[in-house]
Amino acid sequence: MAAVAAALCAAAVVRGEVVDEFGAGASFIFGDSLVDAGNNNYIPSLSKANMTPNGIDFTASGGMPTGRFTNGRTIADIIGEMLGQADYSPPFLAPNTTGGAILNGVNYASGGAGILNATGKIFVNRIGMDLQVDYFNITRKQLDDLLGPDRAKEFLRRKAIFSVTVGSNDFLNNYLMPVLSTGTRISESPDGFVNDLIFHLRDQLTRLYTLDARKFVVANVGPLGCIPYQKTINRVGEDECVKLPNQMAAQYNGKLRELLIELNGDLPGARFCLANVYDLVMELITNYPNYGFETASVACCGNGGSYDGLVPCGPTTSLCDARTKHVFWDPYHPSEAANVLLAKYIVDGDSKYISPMNLRKLFSL
């Protein structure tokens, strides 16, 4: 036991700095703008959040925008904090994401990204899931150089959580797009499209497994028909959501649950947890006063229509006074206050919202 304890506390001298490689653990984060920590700042993309008032409540930056698509921390930031991670996982494309910094984990997420490479074309550039996994392969080689192959493998398998929050854009900015997606919708039924997503996601998750990822949390797609953007363009009432996006999300989510059960059986040593974001957000939207919110339909930062749901958040859009009282920060994304609640249920909740175990249990294995 003493030898194991010594190994766990072993400090590697990396480029002149002492790094506790098995300290507080690491989060490797994949996905879209719900968890992007600033990767899109480094690419020519129309999907950006590096302008005020985004980040107005992000303490680490002194209230300045970082490229996060919310007023404060993302759900991934908060989960990392709750699990004792020493610092936020830095964006892969940031120039200082090298050396010892990668032992906190790395964030590969990109606003506009999807499971399919075609998703998000409207934004010109984004880092889709295939490329995000390619980028992790680069990090994987850096970890070998940093720790040596055996310890890198142990670090990843024991102390790293791989979180995947993707799929929303495959519907919002691909299949359900009014104009750009007509080719997709004519050629593919909803069933065919969902099956296509699952086929590609299976491949992406399996690739991560072959690179020594073992502890996964995969979020399902939230109730897309309830976001201010969808409610605005479809002109539904305050307590209503748009049916088709929610039906498609539910259809995908059912297949995702089956996929993760299958992977848990097929990939030795892997633990795939399903974060039931759909039901969590639905609970928040339906019973928002119980959680201290004043509205679950109007964006805090945005413009256009009944719910300020057309124009994305930026320096010229209107900004609400009570940011902690809005479930939605902008036409698409939850506020930090909502993210805090969602994270609590995913880290410490029961099997209704996170299964087969919560993240605290997964992390402790």
Automatic annotation (TrEMBL):
GO terms for molecular function: hydrolase activity, acting on ester bonds. The lineage of its organism: Eukaryota, Viridiplantae, Streptophyta, Embryophyta, Tracheophyta. Keywords: Hydrolase, Lipid degradation, Lipid metabolism, Signal. Residues 1-16 form the signal peptide. CDD domains: SGNH_plant_lipase_like. It holds the Pfam family Lipase_GDSL. InterPro entries: GDSL, GDSL_Est/Lipase, SGNH_hydro_sf, SGNH_plant_lipase-like. Belongs to the 'GDSL' lipolytic enzyme family. Coiled coil: none annotated. It comes from Dichanthelium oligosanthes. It comes from the Eukaryota. This is GDSL esterase/lipase. GO terms for biological process: lipid catabolic process.
